[in-house]
Structure formats: structure tokens, C-alpha cells
Hints:
Number of strands: 8
Helix content: under 10%
Structural class: mainly beta
Distance between the termini: 37 Å
Strand content: 25-35%
Shape: elongated
Largest sheet: 6 strands, antiparallel
Order of helices and strands: EHEEEEEEE
Number of helices: 1
Amino acid sequence: MKLTPDNKLRKLIIVGDRVLIKLRKADERTSSGLYLPPGVQEKEKVQQGYIIKTGPGYPIPAPIEDNEPWKDRDEAIKYIPLQAKEGDLAIFLLNGSYEVIYEGEKYYIVPQHSILMLEREEEL
């Protein structure tokens, strides 16, 4: 299978309550008109970016029922889904995230508890 821009992230599996975020292009100028280099903007404590992929959520432990051996054991793991969805604009804490470079592009793996706010285009 060849990697294309459409499917290169399809191979990635995000685990648990984490999301994969690509930083939004920051404004190059401040409100007063100063031009800032990209390195200064990337070191801010709070960043914003678009959610590319999400994990399944918080796992729920399966109940143990030893008193009924005739029942089939369902080993499927159940999850509480995340509030964040693909395509949302997330404002998150940078110190709670992990920077990764995949296929030459920089992404951040962020746990849901480090996301401060989401902006979604569709109605909630």
C-alpha cells in the first residue's frame, strides 16, 4: 500500500484517552504589529490545533461474574467515548502533551485532560 496524503495517518492508532493534534498556523504578527519567529509561538504554554485522530476513550473494566460458569465470557472491552472529535479545534496545554514527528510533519499527542476548550463547526 502506498502512502498518500489521504491515507498516511490511517495506519496510526491512538491509544486510550489521547488525541493527535496538528498545530494551527499561528499569526505571524502580534496585535501591535511585531513579527515573531515560529519558535517563539511554539513555546507558548497554551496552543491550539486541529484534532486529526482520537483514541477510543476511557476503558471500562468488565464485571467479573464467577458465580455463573455457563455464561459466555464477553472479552470485548468497552469504552467511555471522548468529548473531542476529529476536526475540532482544540486549545490545549503544551506541557501535558508529547511532540512527535511523523512523515516529516510535527504533531502532538495530547491526553484529553490537557484539552482546555474545543471549537466545533457543527451544532452541539
